[in-house]
Amino acid sequence: MGGLVIYYGSLIVSSDKRVVATCMLLNKNIKLIINYVLGPLVFLVLAYSIYRQIGRQRDWLQSLQQIKKAVEGPRRWQIGMAVLLMPLNWGIEARKWQLLIGSVGRISFRNAFKAVLTGTTLASFTPNRMGEYLGRILYIPEGQRLRGISLTIAGSIAQLLVTLTAGVAGIFYLRERLDHPFILFFTVIALWTALTIIYFRLSWLVGLLDKSPAWGRYKKYIKVPQDFRANILIRILFLSFLRYAVFMIQYQLLFSVFGTGLTGAQVWGGMSVVFLVMAIVPTFTFLTELGLRWEASIQIMELFSGNTVGIFAASFGIWLINLIIPALAGSLLILSIKLFRNK
């Protein structure tokens, strides 16, 4: 009796039961490899990439020594506080994702938390963190995954709006220390205005896209965000601001530990410009972002403190706490994801 097999996206028609059985077995094995080998492989590649990237940075040995001294010193409780704020940071992001995905289907906070960690892992290998979208939608039912991309983008816009808002305040705070600050100021204001309109008028934007024949095939995937109510969008913005504040508190704790002598105003004013630079300057991968993060932090915070090793150590510590530990955890979580259903 004949058989019909879908073999890794290809249609195979055979009258031989043995051929059909072989194709089905190979198909199942491919799915098992993707489901259960991808996580450890990503973990190993990520760990090796981190090792290589750290070795390329200047003053990294001195910074590691300073981190070691701080961990053993009387202010180690501040490092502990910064570490404890990490799950709060990603917990807020998970709550945002949970609210966003509500228009597609319910997701538990636990799975939302797993989704953001997995997204962080996949973001490490993609330009401008684009892999973050893929990592998150893996926790959405198969039939709804493409719809989740537009929802993730909406959440990213909210976080970017907060970054731009704080960046404008930071530019104003540093106006006497920056070259042509008002050109940058008005450029960011223009971008902020455009994104604000897009964020709060998603239904209007989707309506315009619906009229375009080129978008016809994607209509069912992009129409979801128009269902957001204003109160949901405002809640997501509020959570984005809370997450931003957590980042700032972590930096303030570590800058204090490493003896930079920076005041709270200097940390918030300077780092808001650093975050702004990181948001608008494209990066090829999550790891090349590391060099940009350190360079921007030193260039800006050097305006207030000559302790570049301390600035480097604080940035390095935040990178480890907020990005690398979650990314490594996310790589292990990939083990629990079944990208395909074994049949």
Please characterize this protein's 3D structure.
With about 350 residues, the protein is mainly alpha-helical. It has one domain (about 40-335). Helix content is about 70%, strand content about 5%. It has helices at about 15-55, 60-70, 75-100, 110-125, 130-135, 145-175, 180-200, 200-210, 220, 230-255, 265-280, 290-300, 310-335, and strands at about 5, 10-15. It has a two-stranded antiparallel sheet with strand order 1-2. The protein is globular.
Record the SSE blueprint.
Elements: E1 3-7, E2 10-14, H1 17-56, H2 60-72, H3 76-100, H4 109-123, H5 131-137, H6 145-173, H7 181-200, H8 202-210, H9 219-222, H10 230-257, H11 264-280, H12 288-301, H13 308-333
Antiparallel strand pairs: 1-2
Helix pairs in contact: 1-13, 2-13, 3-4, 3-10, 4-5, 4-13, 5-6, 6-7, 6-10, 6-11, 7-8, 10-11, 10-13, 11-12, 12-13
Return the structural class.
mainly alpha
Instruction: Tell me the number of structural domains.
Output: 1
Strand composition percent: under 5%
Strand order of the largest sheet: 1-2
N-to-C terminal Cα separation, in Å? 20 Å
Give the uncertain stretches in residue-range form: 1-27, 339-343
Separate helix tally: 13
Measured on Cα atoms, how large is the radius of gyration? 23 Å
Shape: globular
Q: What string gives the helices and strands in order?
A: EEHHHHHHHHHHHHH
- Assembly annotation: single chain
The biggest beta sheet is recorded as: 2 strands, antiparallel
Integer average pLDDT: 75
Helix content: over 70%
- Compute the number of strand runs: 2
